[in-house]
Design a protein that fits this description.
The complex is a heterodimer of chains A (451) and B (291). Chain A is built from 16 helices and twelve strands. With 451 residues, chain A is α+β, with helices and mostly antiparallel strands. Chain A folds into two domains: 71-192, no CATH class; 245-450, MetI-like (MetI-like fold, Orthogonal Bundle), CATH 1.10.3720.10. In chain A, helix 9 crosses helix 11. Chain B has two domains: 2-60, no CATH class; 67-290, MetI-like (MetI-like fold), CATH 1.10.3720. Chain B contains eleven helices and no strands. Chain B has helices at 2-9, 11-52, 57-63, 66-118, 127-142, 145-156, 160-184, 189-196, 201-235, 243-253, 256-290. In chain B, helix 4 (66-118) crosses helix 7 (160-184). Classes of the chains: A alpha+beta (451), B mainly alpha (291). Chains A and B meet through helix 3, helix 4, helix 5, helix 8 and helix 9 of A and helix 2, helix 3, helix 4, helix 5 and helix 6 of B.
Chain lengths: 451, 291
């Protein structure tokens, strides 16, 4: 490697002054642009009142949602007015999902109980005294319950325990909540994992392991005599009331239909229009201009607005979503395709003309084969983004998985279902993305081979 | 005639001709199958969609123009002065929507740009790192904006910050992917030059790659800006501020004139941004090509 000495560097600097010593104005472009962007971001920070918004954020709600998204909660409840019911253990406090047999961590004897809260200690209720021993505190916290408003009897009060005139509310960690009022004692304990994902709470198959199900499918003994075990297993899974696998699959199908059919019809309708809007096909300037503006209009009116208009006409549902995507895409494809047609090689058209081809044949054999790979690859490219659009306009009324997602979010309880749907949506979008990418690569590679 | 005799006389050529026919038949069959699949997808899909829809297609078709006509009648009743005052009333909301789009594009441009260098095969030795980065980008890109916006609106309440965060998150993934593809196509000679004089990784990227790819980055960024204006308008519908939130309100109340004014403001700004970004992009790519 040759060495560059100072004299050489100076000689070079003198030879190429534009490169080594840039004029001041040019050198300032970078820093000034960075400064302008920084100023703009600071301005926006105040314009959107970010600090105010963050201050008002319900982070406690957020952490609860996050917990509920991957964990499920079991309620243990005792009502003092209804001692005959005893302790009721249920999933998420639902009346439909009451455990007939108490789990191991709940030991009861009439009005008395010992509830093991895992790392959060043990709660004991006996003889009208509720005492909670937490591992971090030497002395148990004691309350008199069942006789009017809960009364605090002793023990060091931790800061996670809220004592009011009417109730005791303790939340040592996110996983445990103890709640006592005049009429009841309720303990909520979270467990990781999605409960009843495969089979419903009251399904005969609930609680069976994968191996047991597998054995059941192949066993000759039928649980329900009128149908095979396989069909029973499938239908129990498919009609799971809480997770609604069947309905979710149907909603997903609707969303895919919106994306696929909207893109296909859009492409098919745009194709002849694009020929009519290309300057090497259509000699009429006015006609081309009109078509171009139509494309701009179709594209400029967003999916969302088209779907609003179509929902008024066709009602709520995927048909309206399909048409919304179809309209926007016709504009997009019309523009892209007509540009491609204008850029097509003229020589092949001239060659066709020389053989005495009719105008239709000229474009069919001269232009069409040149731009076909581009058409298909553009349509595949848009298929992925339309899957996402279909989810979005679905949430705004066009149905499908988007609407399902909105419904589960609105309940503000079924966060595990929300998570499930989000995971499904993302999986489908990534799948569509990879599939369209793979097909496009194949297509372009195939086109290159053909040339 | 002579040619045919010649073909008939030489078995090799005959074979070629048969092979040609076979391939062409196969090709026609594939084309037919593909067309059949398309037709099946369209009609099957339309039937599924029609069944799931609350209204019927043919009934809907006859009512298609009812709603737009309603809107125009509402606008006509308002008069020109009334429409003008509506434009003035909604203009700040349009600015908010545009601002949401711009802020999120700018932030995502910076973050996505930084991320893209770590996700380019020609700049990073570790295959594992590139693979992980690519998968992270896939996931952020696949997140529909509306999902994040809905979650954030629940936590932060109705605020444009939710829209900014949602659009930024999605845009980071989308831009980083396009950017890293651009990086991989960059000429590596300048990087080698800087390496040979002892430049570290940051200097190689800063002086070797960045000047080459920056015009393309800006071009993709402008394209995203237009997409993000649409997205931020939509996110208003779930309470994330801007013109979309106003549109949602007037659609619910069925104020024809207001709906029409907002739609026109949106369409005009989207078309204008589309046109301007196209103009600038052609310039950028043009100068990039001249280098």
């Amino acid at each position: 490697m040759s060495k560059t000495n100072i004299a050489d560097v100076e000689a070079m600097a003198a030879k190429y002054p534009d490169v080594v010593a840039l004029p001041l104005a040019k050198r300032l472009v970078g820093p000034l642009a960075t400064l302008a962007v920084a100023c703009y971001l600071v301005f926006s920070f105040f314009a959107f009142d970010v600090s105010g918004v963050l201050g008002k954020a319900r982070m406690d709600m957020a952490s609860l949602y996050a917990l509920d998204a991957y964990a499920h909660k079991v309620h243990v409840k005792y009502q003092f007015k209804k001692p005959e019911q005893g302790y009721i253990v249920s999933l998420e406090g639902s009346k439909r999902a009451v455990y007939e047999q108490h789990p191991e961590w709940v030991q009861t004897n009439g009005a008395d109980a010992q509830i093991d809260l895992g790392d959060d200690g043990i709660l004991q209720i006996s003889g009208g005294i509720m005492s909670y021993s937490h591992p971090d505190y030497a002395e148990p916290l004691r309350f008199a319950v069942g006789d009017g408003v809960p009364r605090y009897l002793g023990g060091e009060l931790p800061e996670w325990l809220k004592l009011s005139k009417t109730q005791v509310n303790a939340r040592p960690t996110l996983y445990t909540r103890i709640w006592a009022t005049k009429s009841k004692v309720e303990v909520q304990r979270y467990f990781n994992g999605w409960e009843n994902f495969w089979f419903d709470f009251d399904s005969v198959l609930n609680g069976m392991s994968f191996g047991q199900i597998w054995a059941l499918v192949f066993s000759a003994e039928r649980i329900e005599p009128e149908r095979s075990n396989l069909s029973l297993v499938f239908s129990e899974f498919w009609t799971n009331a809480e997770w609604q696998h069947g309905e979710v699959a149907y909603a997903l199908l609707q969303t895919l239909v919106m994306a696929v059919v909207g893109t296909l019809i859009g492409g098919i309708v745009a194709l002849p229009l694009a020929f009519a809007a290309a300057n090497n096909v259509n000699p009429s300037k006015l006609g081309r201009f009109t078509l171009r503006r139509c494309f701009d209009f179709l594209r400029g009116v967003d999916n969302l607005i088209w779907s609003l208009i179509f929902i008024r006409a066709f009602g709520l549902g995927p048909l309206s979503g399909t048409f919304a995507i179809f309209f926007t895409d016709t504009g997009t494809f019309g523009k892209l395709f007509s540009e491609a047609i204008e850029n097509a090689d003229k020589k092949q058209v001239e060659g066709m003309q020389a053989t005495g081809a009719s105008p239709v044949q000229k474009y069919r054999f001269g232009v069409f084969p040149q731009i076909l790979p581009l058409f298909v690859s553009q349509m595949l490219y848009y298929l992925e983004s339309n899957t996402r659009s279909a989810t979005v306009i679905g949430a705004l009324g066009a149905g499908g998985i988007g609407l399902k997602l909105l419904e589960t979010m609105r309940t503000r309880q079924d966060w595990e279902n929300t998570t499930y749907l989000i995971v499904l949506i993302i999986a489908v979008v990534i799948l569509m993305d990879n599939m369209s990418g793979w097909l496009r690569r194949k297509l372009i590679a195939g086109g290159a081979e053909g040339k | 005639m002579a040619a045919r005799d010649f073909v008939a006389a030489s078995p090799k050529l005959n074979e070629i001709e048969l092979a040609y026919h076979r391939v062409s038949r196969q090709r026609n069959l594939y084309t037919l199958l593909l067309l059949a699949a398309c037709v099946f997808a369209i009609f099957g899909g339309l039937m599924i969609a029609n069944e799931a829809n609350s209204g019927d297609f043919w009934v809907g078709l006859s009512q298609f123009f009812d709603y737009p006509v309603d809107l125009f009648v509402g606008a006509y009743e308002k008069g020109l002065a009334g429409l003008g005052s509506l434009v003035v009333h909604y203009f700040p909301f349009l600015l908010e929507t545009l601002n949401i789009a711009l802020v999120s594009t700018v932030i995502a441009f910076g973050l996505g740009g930084a991320l893209s260098f770590v996700a380019s095969r020609n700049l990073v030795q570790s295959r594992l790192l590139v693979f992980c980065m690519r998968r992270i980008m896939d996931v952020t890109r696949a997140f529909p904006e509306i999902v994040i916006a809905l979650l954030l609106v629940l936590i932060f309440g109705p605020t444009p910050v939710a829209a900014v965060a949602a659009v930024t998150f999605h845009t980071i993934g989308a831009l980083a992917k396009q950017f890293s593809e651009t990086n991989e196509n960059a000429d590596m000679k300048s990087v080698e030059g800087i390496q040979s004089v002892g430049g570290n990784w940051f200097e190689q990227v800063r002086f070797g790659v960045l000047p080459q790819v920056l015009p393309n980055f800006f071009s993709y960024g402008l394209l995203r800006l237009e997409i993000n204006v649409r997205a931020s308008a939509i996110l208003g519908f779930v309470g994330a501020g801007g013109l979309g939130a106003e549109l949602k309100a007037v659609v619910d109340w069925n104020y024809g004139a207001d709906i029409l004014v907002i739609i026109f403001m949106l369409v005009i700004s989207i078309t204008t941004i589309d046109y301007l970004s196209g103009l600038v992009r052609r310039k950028l790519i043009g100068t990039a090509g001249a280098h």
